[in-house]
Design brief:
It contains 18 helices and no strands. The protein is mostly helical. The termini are close together.
Length: 490
Amino acid sequence: MTTVHAQPATRPTPAALVPTLVYLAMLVAVISSLGAPLVPAIAEANGVSVADAQWSLTVTLLVGAVATPVIGRLGDGRHRRTVVLAVLGVVLAGSVLAALPLGLGWLIAGRALQGVGMGLTPLAIATARTTLSGERSRSTVAALSVTVAAGVGLGYPLTGAIAEFGGVHAAFWAGAAASAVALVAAAVVYPPSADVPPRRLDLLGAALLGTGLATALLALAEAETWGWTSPAVLGLTAVAVAALAWWVVWQLRAPAPLVDLRLARGRDAAAAHGTALLVGLANYLLLSSVPRLAQEPVAAGGFDTSIVVAGLILLPFSLASFSASRIAARLDRSHGPRVVLPLAALVLGAGQLLFALLRDELWQLFVAMTVVGLGVGTMFAALPGLIVGAVPKHETGSAMSLNQVMRYVGFSVGSALSATVLEAATPAGAAFPDAGGYTAIAWTGVGTCVAVGLLTGLLPTRAARAPEPPREEAAVEAADAAVAPHDPAR
């Protein structure tokens, strides 16, 4: 039962609040788009390898995976406004740090701070749900979801253009300016939260998850340079395994876990979360490598494009992903996730296969990323329906929170793995990898999609529990929970 709490009298009018919430969602999109197309330019500006510069993307995704449930929990109660302002302050500091010409280490540190901002969208959605009412609330939630998807697609070429004409650091200064505007706007119009007791924050769970992911990704990213059997890599791997194992045990026993792993029990739920991780991995294998290939010299097998063009290659991915999510919602209502998910795996695998076999012309990269976007959009749109049918209704939000974490983990692993594969394919003394490195990445993506197809294709034909809410209601509930998993009003 939901308790309705009176809103403070100083609550701003919806006309002032909604544009601020949309702008926050757009800021998250800009932060995420300051990544893949800029990696080669970051390497050149700092005189480092592209594999090292890849950390400017990987670290943001890594921090986002840990920060999103933490920020959601901190913003559950009466301190939501304070949390939003604090997160925006951290993002602003990270943007300035990344913009200053202090070297790659400081840029990566700044990008890590920017990754904290990936937890802003759930808080913005939760604010729209609890502050607004009726159709106004529903339309704002929908607008925020669209803003994130569309903002990423527009952000890639926009930030690429800024970097092309003003340098890499100019792109981060633009991010700092956008963050400053968001901080001021939120300070002026963000409403105080209702007087709701906050839930306990699982600090140990956050520390174990962060340690496990960070050491695992560091071992994966540096294994080719340090040696796969070097003491450093083996030691990091041991720490990662121990930390993640401890995290799993703790999450299953903690009274208020950061991420409720108990909701992954059962074939449907486990398949949904495993699919999110694998699709996230396959997704970022190409999002990380395609812009890099586009910018490499023709003599090295690339297309010698500008950062702007490299960003434009990702635009059809975002547009196709958004369009497919609209279509997938209808397919999910008529046929269910047990049909849609294997179909999405087939489409995503076809995009990976196109990249493996056809990349002699620049337009072929556009086609491959469009097909990949169709597969990713369909997959992520259909997953909520599977989760809704696998867990009790009152646990939908927590289950979607777990699914979001698994998605971010897949993103960060895909980013690190692409750098490792291309580093292994780079001959000694050469600046660029052989074409076989990109082929290996594509075939890894194809294999991942085959695994997703088998995982989802073997789902039982009947739901794991009964009765289910109507499909229309379930889809709305899951989509809402996906972007606002920690809303105390749920």
